[in-house]
Amino acid sequence: MKKIACIGDKDSVLCFMAIGCSVFIAESAEEAAKILRKFASDESYPIIFLVEKYYNAMPGVISDYSERPLPAIISLPGASGSEGSGLANIKALVEKAIGADITFNN
Amino acid sequence: MAQLIKVNPTRMELSKLKKRLKTAQRGHKLLKDKRDELVKQFLELVRKNRELRTEVEMKLKLSHEAFAGVSAVMSPQALEEALIFPKQSVVLEPSEKNIMSVDVPVFNYKMQGSHSDIFSYGFAFTSSELDDAVQGLSDVLSQLVELAETEKSVMLLASEIEKTRRRVNALEHVLIPNLQYTIKNIIMKLDENERGNTTRLMKVKDMVLNQNSRY
Question: What is residue A74's three-state secondary structure?
Fold first, then answer.
């Protein structure tokens, strides 16, 4: 049975418990990276939501899984609010693929 | 600057190189088409991704705020107790879709458990803010899954585009010019040999004629 995993600090992820995601509480980025590695290698969690601040703290771990179709590791803003890095990541991807961001002029 | 490929200037090598050039040009054309189509699909996905993310982040902010409100009125223990056994769980059925030979995930999800009642707690000991917060969050769920799908596809497509672009450039600016330069060189060398041969024959013919006319 494949489920959605949420990794983050307690305040940010506790609410995801209510809608039926599997929640893993990590109090530091290292702890989160450890949990992430554990679940990314077995395929029981195709979607892993990771709190933004941890996502940005471990680009190396994320890039290990970025070439594989599964799991999808997605950053979400935490309880302290969005830092805007989600949109910045999309911008970076467009720049990587095309060379310049040509979609931001809206 | 095009570089000479180290091969013997023979007809055999020439025809081999010509074949390689043809393949390289065909490959270049195909890869270029692939890149263009990938970029087209990619841009569509990126637009969708950006819209989804803006919307999801906004809704999550609202529900985080709601939860902050809840945790202000309820003790953390009570809150955790209320949420720890969810009534429903999300079951994902991942499958794959092929966009221009890139495998991207597609997520279908089902809710398991009761559909009418998403609240995992009795209403006696919890505040009504919690109900709103949970309700709000469960409304975002479908968008969250969609966001995961799009964002992963965008990531995969971006790296595929990067790879394809590198290949196109390598063919266009390195392999094809090198092949053309080498082919030109071999043709020139072969022609030179041919001319050398003709002059030698003419010389020999002259010498033979001179010898014969002496008698």
Answer: strand
Q: At residue A27, does pLDDT exceed 80?
A: yes
pTM for the full predicted model: 0.82
Q: By residue range, what is the domain housing residue A35?
A: 4-98
Contact residues, chain A, for B63 at CB < 8 Å: 15
The minimal CB distance from A66 to the residues B50, B67, B155 is found for: B155
Write the CATH number for B188: 1.10.287.3240
Contact yes or no for A15/B67 (Cβ under 8 A): yes
Whether A2 and B94 lie within 8 Å, measured CB to CB: yes
pLDDT band at B4 (very low <50, low <70, confident <90, very high): confident
Contact B86 A15 (CB under 8 A): no
Residue B203, domain member (yes or no): yes
Look at residue B115 in the predicted model and tell me its pLDDT: 58
Per-residue exposure over A71-99, b if at least 16 CB sit within 10 Å of its own CB, e if not: bbbbbbbbbeebeebbbebbbebbeebbe
Per-residue CA distances from B98 to B38, B58, B153, B156 (Å): 12, 31, 10, 11
B189 assigned to some structural domain = yes
Of the partner residues A46, A79, A86, the one whose CB lies closest to the CB of residue B68: A79
Assess contact for A11 and A78: CB atoms under 8 A: yes
Say how far apart CA B101 and CA B38 lie, in whole Å: 10
Contact A48, A22 (CB under 8 A): no
